[in-house]
Write a structure and sequence with these properties.
By secondary structure, this protein is an alpha+beta fold. The protein has two domains: about 5-125 and about 275-335, 3-Layer(aba) Sandwich (D-Maltodextrin-Binding Protein, domain 2), CATH 3.40.190.150; about 125-275 and about 340-355, Periplasmic binding protein-like II (D-Maltodextrin-Binding Protein, domain 2), CATH 3.40.190.10. The chain has 13 helices and 14 strands. Strands 1-3-2-4-13-5-14 form a seven-stranded mixed sheet, with helices on both faces. Strands 9-6-10 form a three-stranded antiparallel sheet. The protein has a two-stranded parallel ribbon with strand order 7-8. Belongs to the UPF0065 (bug) family. Keywords: Signal.
């Protein structure tokens, strides 16, 4: 099942947690946190960040192992998790927007149902698009000088989270040719590093953990973020990257790109579904309430650590973390789009890439 695994033991950490539920005890047990992507992407870095903290806060301080089950843009792992049932509370599953989008679009390969799973933690993220140095020299805050270039992009698939950058670049009038079939966004970054791709995007964890060093070395030029949402649902600058323009800003500066109308509304709907609630941790069907509460309390303790905001900003970014009822509501928002947005995107996928979801 695994390609690679990372083991985290609470015993290796120096600080102690407050007592958790007395009737749930994971002493001596191993928690398997399954991620349906490769070990090189943002979801891997997200789980690797939270795993040792979770190990410290769960009752009995178990070992937490992050395992990877890549394939079909995460659909393989999600279909597998759908068949799992509660046994002893030692299975956790992590999804991303690339798992949510096929579900939202009615992809025929989807055999999983989000409402069957039990969310215990959800967190938002951002995304940064960047260019190779040649194109970066032409970027002036708009895409006007990029429209005569032909870009190559390593993609997991048009119905995955890559839908957001692919539609954004189309709205900007850019010629971006996706190479489909990579197993994770980290593989797309590797294509960019090898010169096989000339444009890329990474979620915040992947950008901070891998792409930022390329920017610092002059091998990549940041173009824009997708932005974040304020309390009125307006797109504003990403709090992790406040110096970078948002896609909305670049669109407003680019001839022919509109921040109103059908295309914009559809892009924004999928952005909201895919990024403010991008990473979700689930327990399987049938998990007892006391085990759910133990995980909820553990993740709550993690996000309330005195040093959490500082260490999170460095590794996963400055985004909200939801637990309990908040995680349930966030999951609902992340797995819902309007019929109009779905219809627009479905038609675009058919027209642009020959992807039929009927």
């Amino acid at each position: 099942m695994t390609i690679k695994q990372f083991v985290y033991s609470a015993a290796a950490l120096a600080f102690m947690s407050a007592p958790a539920l007395a009737d749930v005890d994971f002493s001596g047990k191993t928690i398997e946190w399954v991620i349906p992507f490769s070990e090189t992407g943002g979801s891997a870095k997200w789980a690797n960040f939270f795993a040792p903290l979770l190990a410290q806060e769960l009752p009995g301080k178990p070992t937490v192992i992050v395992k990877f089950m890549p394939g079909a843009g995460s659909t393989k792992g999600a279909n597998w998790f759908q068949e799992q049932r509660y046994e002893d509370g030692t299975l956790l599953f992590g999804t991303s927007g690339s798992t949510q989008f096929p579900y939202l679009l009615g992809d025929p390969r989807v055999r999983y149902e989000y409402s069957d799973w039990i969310p215990v933690m959800a967190s938002g993220t951002g995304g940064v698009a960047y260019l190779n140095p040649e194109a970066g020299k032409k970027f002036d805050g708009s895409a006007n000088n990029l429209k005569d270039l032909n870009f190559i992009y390593g993609s997991q698939g048009a119905t995955r989270l890559d839908l957001v950058p692919l539609l954004a670049w189309r709205m900007l009038g850019m010629n971006v040719e996706p190479v489909f079939g990579i197993k994770g966004r980290g593989d797309g970054r590797l294509m960019f590093e090898r010169g096989e791709a000339t444009i890329d995007y990474q979620t915040t964890t992947g950008y901070l953990g891998g792409s930022l060093s390329m920017v610092e070395d002059g091998k990549a030029v940041p173009m824009m973020t997708w932005g974040a949402l304020d309390e009125n649902n307006n797109i504003v600058r990403d709090p992790t990257f406040p110096d970078l323009p948002t896609f909305k800003e670049v669109c407003e500066a680019t001839d022919g790109c509109e921040t109103s109308g059908e295309a914009w509304d559809s892009w924004k709907a999928f952005f909201i579904a895919g990024f403010p609630v991008q990473k979700i941790a689930f327990l399987p069907q049938g998990t007892p309430d006391d085990v759910v509460e133990a995980y909820t309390e553990a993740f709550d303790a993690v996000r309330n650590r005195p040093d959490f905001k500082k260490i999170a900003a460095q590794q996963v970014g400055k985004y909200d973390v939801f637990v309990g009822k908040g995680a349930e509501q966030a999951t609902k928002e992340g797995t819902t789009v309007s019929p109009e947005a779905k219809a627009y995107v479905t038609d675009w996928l058919q027209e642009a890439y020959g992807v039929s979801l009927n």
